[in-house]
Amino acid sequence: MDSMEPDQRLRELFAKGEQVDIDYSVPVRRYFRSCQELMRMAGVYYEEKNFENSYILYAKFIVLSFEKLKNHPDYVKVPSNERKANKKAIMVAFDRAEKLKPLIKMKYQEAYTKHLEEQALMVALAREDEVRKREERALMLEEEERRQQEVEEKRRLSEQAMMDAFLLAQEQKKLEKERQAIEAEFAPKVTIDDKKALLVPIDIAPPPPDIQTSSQPQPPKPVVSSYSQPQQPLVGPSHPPPAAQMKYQPAVPSRESKPHTSHESVPPPPASSSSTSVVSSKPAINRSLKPPSSTDVNDNSSSNFSSAAFGASLTQSKNKYGLRTIICPADLPSKFMRVAVNNTSRNIETCGVLFGKLANEVFIITHVLVPHQTGAPDSCDTTREEDMWEFQDEYDGICLGWIHTHPSQTAFLSSVDLHTHYPYQCLMPESVAIVCSDKFSENRNFMLTPDHGMNVIGKCRKSGFHPHTSNPPLFEVCDHVISSGQHKSDIVDWRNK
User: Fold this and answer.
1) Which pLDDT tens digit goes with each residue over 398-407?
2) Per-residue confidence (pLDDT) for residue 329, from 0 to 100
3) Which residue, among 182, 142, 330, 331, has the nearest Cα to 267 in the 3D structure?
4) Could you tell me the pLDDT band of residue 89, with boundaries at 50, 70 and 90?
5) Looking at the predicted structure, is the pLDDT value of residue 342 above 90?
6) What confidence score (pLDDT) does residue 325 get?
7) In DSSP terms, which residues pair with 374 in a beta bridge?
8) CA dihedral defined by 251, 257, 260, 266, rounded to 10 degrees?
9) Which residues have C-beta within 8 Å of that of residue 378, sequence separation ≥ 6?
10) Using CB atoms within 10 A as the burial measure, which of 43, 263, 318, 412 is most buried?
11) Residues 457 and 448: beta-carbon distance below 8 Å
12) 0.85 exceeded by the pTM?
């Protein structure tokens, strides 16, 4: 509501105050008493600074007294002193209503201004939040990009390390082959004398026959005999002189130009080409350069990823129909049953009228008036309605409904009870009908259903006991009446007054 412009809220408030309907079947004097209750409640709201509800009740009083009641068929039967008092009250209501208008408008204007400020603040906060979220998203994207770059760099370094290791292995393999080729080229060459089975240096042994006939002699291949120990001594000295040794074992060229290999001695030549082995070592891989797994990559990742209120009050209660709460003292039914014990013992119903006070949007039942009445096993009627007006003026109370006994029946509302309760609820939507059953030891709080029962009973012109449809129900248990052990009530018995 604070989002609505003040003038519009005022117009709706004025319209709510004009919503007053009367039922000509309800005695006109009851409406006059209801007007007095409207003035009392409006005064309570005014003192509590509940200006909106106060204005609504003053407006209803003005419309009811100044316009509606004049059309009631029994208006002329109202005593002149009551009509004069009502006219004076109209002037008071007009004066209060005019004073309330600027106060209410000021309240609405303040609420509307506060609403606009809150809206502007919310918009500013929303913008700041959006900027913050954009910055966070940018930081997240930047962080994600950095992580991806780190992963890509690690992967690239790992691949580079593997490639370097592979190239190094290939280079080592190549150098090994070169070394073996050089060793094979410059290794001492020996042959076997087949006839004498002696190992002799090739320079001393006679040349083989094919060498003399060959036009292009081939370099001899080193041959190793099949036996492990020679039977004849070698031809020539077993320890050749240094000169001869140098002649048959030429020096191997320097390998300082090959940085990755060095040999302290030259191994003996291989036995055969088939037995020659090439030693190749696998490249050493640094495991610390292994690309991180998806789990490692994502370890640092993070996800950032609440019958239209037919009463006079604007305050909506939490009960079914949004009615104002009525607090009923817990001992009220038992007190009333003690007062009615004589009638109950004779199977005669007893009735009383409930009066109370309004404070902070809550009604509290403070008194029960037992007026002059006549009773029967299934009904009871008041005989002097003036008792209620006199009591109401004396105690300055608000009528909140009625209470009666069912000496031999369960607690429910008969057709007569429905018609009896209709005027109470018509004038005060919160009005309650309390039924006390002594025989079945039960007390119930009833009301007419506002969306059905009030319409049916209001249009019914039958009297006495007569049938009504029960589906949908015409009455139900009240949920706005609360029993309280902290409050007390007084029973005022005027039957013998």
Assistant:
1) 999 999 999 9
2) 96
3) 182
4) very high
5) yes
6) 95
7) 381
8) 0
9) 349, 409, 414, 416, 465
10) 43
11) yes
12) no
481 sits in which H/E element: strand 481-484
In this prediction, residues 215-236 reach a mean pLDDT of 45
pLDDT(235) > 90: no
Report how far residue 94's alpha carbon sits from residue 105's, in angstroms, rounded to the nearest whole number: 17
Report which of residues 470 and 296 the model is more confident about.
470
Residue 15 amino acid letter: A
Q: Which amino acid is at 33?
A: R
Instruction: Compute φ and ψ for 325, nearest 5 degrees.
Output: -75, 140
CA distances from 4 to 10, 195, 264 (A): 10, 131, 103
**DSSP characters over 90-146:** HHHHHHHHHHHHHHHHHHHHHHHHHHHHHHHHHHHHHHHHHHHHHHHHHHHHHHHHH
Q: Any residues with CB less than 8 A from the CB of 484 and at least 6 apart, and which?
A: 327, 328, 329, 330
Strand segments, DSSP code E, in 246-397 are 325-329, 351-359, 362-370, 373-376, 379-382
| CA dihedral for 263, 265, 269, 275, sign (positive or negative) | negative
pLDDT above 70 (res 388): yes
Question: How crowded is residue 383: how many other Cβ atoms within 10 Å of its Cβ?
Answer: 11
